[in-house]
Amino acid sequence: MTRYVSPPPVAGLEPTLPSSWYRSEKVYGLEKERVFFREWLCVGREEELPSPGSHRVLDVLGESVILVRNRENHLRAFYNVCRHRGARLCRPDGATTGPPIAGGIAANRIVCPYHQWTYDLDGRLLAAPYLTTEAGFDKSAFSLYPIAVETWGGFVFLHLTPATATPFAAQAGGVPERLRRYPLSELRIGHTIEYQVAANWKVICENYNECYHCAGVHPELCAIVPAFKDRGGSNLDWERGIPHREGAYTFTKSGTTRRRPFPTLNEDEQVRHKGELLYPNLFVSLACDHAAVFILRPRSPLRTDITCLFLFEPFELEKPDFDPSDTVEFWDVVNRQDWVICETVQEGISSRVHERGYYAPMEDFSLDIRRYVLERIGDAAPAGDSLAGRSVADSL
Questions:
Q1: Does pLDDT of 109 surpass 50?
Q2: Which of 89, 90, 210, 347 is buried deepest, with most CB atoms within 10 A?
């Protein structure tokens, strides 16, 4: 099989992936199988399943997943598929259409609504009516299809192909160490915003990874963090964190807040901003008093849903006058600017003349998505950058 090879730089600029890779159903299908179904995916926060028996039914790139906390308070996950005839065991969260049906999760059991096959919260088959006494019927052969679960920093990660899963620590790389002083596992959700973005997930990752666009797209953000617009946002020290303007130390319109800084931060982290992208679908942006978290949920080559969680200390959340609006309103402005510019990119690269883009030198980190994707699908995806061996743009 021929492996896709990136073309050489042009005029000193590194080429992006082919534009077709941001809109192709075939490439998206490969990404589902080779990226999203073979990597650890963030799906939410541990606090969303607070006690034994708590559960959620999730749509993970078209696969229905049951995430549940078992009797021992451990998280477990399974494909939402009965081992008998394949019926859905649980209806999706918020589903209200159609007549009510029996089954689902209750009393520490998962019951299929079709023939009442019953499983425990570890996925083991407990009962199959009129079969469990039959000679040769082995219940242990009919456990639910498992999905691996890991947690870090209060986040829940799933691996939909557990037999081939590498340790989560290998995928997380240096992120946990770099953020070790932020009390992520102790923070709680103070506000949530759901966005629908008409852009490919890779466009959104590339946008998050560079600040070349910040001066033109984010005037409010650059007023708080002028370093984002200096020299096109180049030479930013993400390891140490990015300084705010004089007198500012957090992401609000004023650059200040009534909330206290996390007590565990060092001196730099109390006044600098840090950000991490944990591929393939988690962005974490950290101020001294809150974390803004973005969980990407690709829906098609042309659409990505994004859950934005705002995390705060319980110390602050429990105050009678707790109000996250200073941070939420600021971030919502910045977010919407990003989503609109990503949608304009998606629209532009859909033109027949645009076969690929180029990375400016200050966009070096954006090359990560190119390398990341090529390593996983480069031997199977189409080149997609020419027609009959001839560039469309060159033919005009």
A1: yes
A2: 89
Residue 237, pLDDT score: 86
Q: Is the pTM of this model over 0.90?
A: yes
Give dist(CA 35, CA 84) in Å, integer: 29
CB-based contact 222:208 (threshold 8 Å): no
